[in-house]
Amino acid sequence: DAEVNTRKKTFTEVQTERLEQAERTVLIKCPPKLNEKKLLQYLSSHGNIRSHFFFENRGIHALVEFSEKNSIASLQDAIGIPSAAEHHVVPFKSRLFTFTLKNPVSQTAEETLVHLSPQSHIPVKELIQKLCDADSVSNQMYILLNEFQLTEENIKLRFLACSLVRDFARAYFPDSMVKPFGSSVNTFGKLGCDVDMFLDFHNVQKRATKTKKGPFEMEYQMKRLPSERLANQKILSVIGDCLDNFGPGCVSVQKILNARCPLVKFSHQPTGFQCDLSVSNSIAIKSSELLYIYGCLDPRVRALVFTVRCWARVHGLTNSVPGTWITNFSLTMMVMFFLQKRSPPIIPTLDQLKELADEKDKHIIGGYDCSFVSDLSKIKPTKNTETLDALLSDFFEYFGNFDFRKNSINLRKGKEVNKPESSPLYIWNPFEQDLNISKNVNQPQLEKFVAMARESAWILQKEEKTQRLINKEPWGLAALLTPFGKSNPSKMKNRMKGMGSETIRSLLDSLKLNNTNSLQKAVGK
């Protein structure tokens, strides 16, 4: 479709394309000594191979995408079932295969070194060394983005994990889909993040509405349950049992059915992902699509989000364990809000995106208006030309002095509005307008965030790059990713003394975390 190729694809087009791609894909565990040419030659006898790559995950694996789906059926017909010498096998035929050499000794001479696609990002220490060689903070931020963002190969692997779970769901619900949402698809995922996936029955429901034509009606007899929640719990319970009992490589399966959003957590060993499976969460999908749009509109958006999230992780402001910390989602929304507030704005508000929506973009979900434009070409590019250097520094300055006591953050309007209730940090859910997405954050954590933002703004504005290079010290973004006070604590204390400010002294206390109330006076000034 030439028209699609000349413009940026919509979120739904990208998802549909990748899900279809995953249906034509297999995953093969390979021997440590491998002849790539011979493996591909053998697989090609079953059909044309469109793409492939190798990666390391408890041994070498190959992800192979065929041009035609029926090539997989042909391959499956030719494949043997493992001999059950030590264990009895569950005879579920998946798209996960093991490739072995019948006579490894004679074939070692033919082995080739295969290129392995990285599936995790480099450690922060290594990143800091790379950043020190860059010539500007902007370039440092793009280096960080390139090191941490999901690669094309990793995204394919994520969609394959969903497709393999779909093979189980189909046994009970032939028309169902399993789709990724959240960081795997919203353009803000980093290598190593979990895969959030959901079971989607919308195709089944669409078909049901179509058949009500003509002088009579025919419908399926289906089990009726008192609530959608109970139906979701039952469905997830059975799929969870299937994965646990029959799924090759599905381990540590946990059914968390009484959560606000019931889910099944499991570890998918063949792809190396931690996965969370839930049932149809339409609003979560709309949030993923909204972030996808923002991420596609301007390259600075993703660079700033990745930088702020990495900074927050280094300083212990975010945590992979749920708690009173700011979440990555809240931080991302704070960056979006900041970009809406620039002059001129770098991204539009949600209300502006809603105004551009046409009939097919109209979505009311559970009484909430989730309508916004899906076609990126309808959104005018920004006239803002600020550098990432300036944006990063201003982000810390802005939130270091934000009146959190009085104001909340609203992405629909793109402006501060009075807090509707007394949570320390109030960020309106863009769609479910009666929810605060940062309700979990407590006062000490917010104060720590403000303290770190102020210190970071100070470092970016005051520190002399040339002096730091002479002293062989990290500069710019590299300095922000080094825990404060560790590299040179005496210098930090002297600097604070010189400024003689009450706020800065309380900042030092908060960094020691001796006194959780130390910044209470400062927050909001």
Automatic annotation (TrEMBL):
Residues 10-78 form the RL domain. Keywords: Magnesium, Metal-binding, Transferase. Residues 138-295 form the Poly(A) RNA polymerase mitochondrial-like central palm domain. Its cofactor is Mg(2+); Mn(2+). GO terms for molecular function: metal ion binding; poly(A) RNA polymerase activity. Residues 390-425 form the PAP-associated domain. Gene3D superfamilies: 1.10.1410.10, Beta Polymerase, domain 2. GO terms for cellular component: mitochondrion. One of its GO terms (biological process) is RNA 3'-end processing. This is PAPD1 protein. The gene is Mtpap.
